[in-house]
């Protein structure tokens, strides 16, 4: 099976999980619109070197069609113009929407409670990680309704409603979970599947830089954070998304929050190094006390 005739949007595909998910959809032959704020001409407040043009090129290299579009998903007018572009270029067809906009790492003040955390940073996090998602869904869903089918994926962190160590971070990630469930209910008569998807301990470009390691010597990062030993590359969640997109019975997951480790058990896929990281088991044994 392949997705050669399908159109996907990965919102927030400049790097990390978003980039990997776009590439994996490219492997299926899909046409993938990759959005973000960093281009070859302009860098975002994240101050990272990765660009949406690079992601689009990697999608093409993988076998798909990659289309980079600079979009700030917190800006309603930009999102509206972007969805109109997709509508016009793809004759109204949109099959997959991945809401992966985040950018909250520099906004999270770990160790500070709701009264001490910078309020403006907390509000900005909700704007980027929550409002951006439902603004994008608001304009994208009508395209799916026309075809009476589609897959919406809300990328989150964690599988439950438990506190995640920071008020604003927790609020954002749990909101993503509930948005997926709420859209599943709203759109159940339109044959549109909506799920939340979480990685485990993500070994992203930013995390590698934070720990001062590369993908080649990443295990040295355990000296900084012992639980890094159970980390996974962004391509693991990319594989998870690819298998969901190719699954003819994906609606059995409608409204659920899924994880890379659960889906690797179901579909049998592996990370790039041939392993099957299982953050759920690791967390219960080594983190949860």
What does this structure look like?
By secondary structure, this protein is an alpha/beta fold. The protein has one domain: 3-Layer(aba) Sandwich (Rossmann fold), CATH 3.40.50. 42% of the residues lie in helices and 13% in strands. The chain has 9 helices and 7 strands, in the order E-H-E-H-E-H-E-H-E-H-E-H-H-E-H-H. The protein has a 7-stranded parallel beta sheet with strand order 3-2-1-4-5-6-7, with helices on both faces. Strand 4, helix 4 and strand 5 (150-155) form a beta-alpha-beta unit. The longest helix has 29 residues, at 119-147. The mean pLDDT is 96.
What sort of overall outline do the alpha carbons produce when their principal axes are compared?
Answer: globular
The biggest sheet amounts to: 7 strands, parallel
Side by side, the strands of the main sheet go 3-2-1-4-5-6-7
CATH superfamily: NAD(P)-binding Rossmann-like Domain
Oligomer: single chain
Any idea of the CATH topology? Rossmann fold
Radius of gyration equals 18 Å
Total individual domains? 1
Please write the CATH class name.
Alpha Beta
CATH architecture: 3-Layer(aba) Sandwich
Encode the helix/strand succession as letters: EHEHEHEHEHEHHEHH
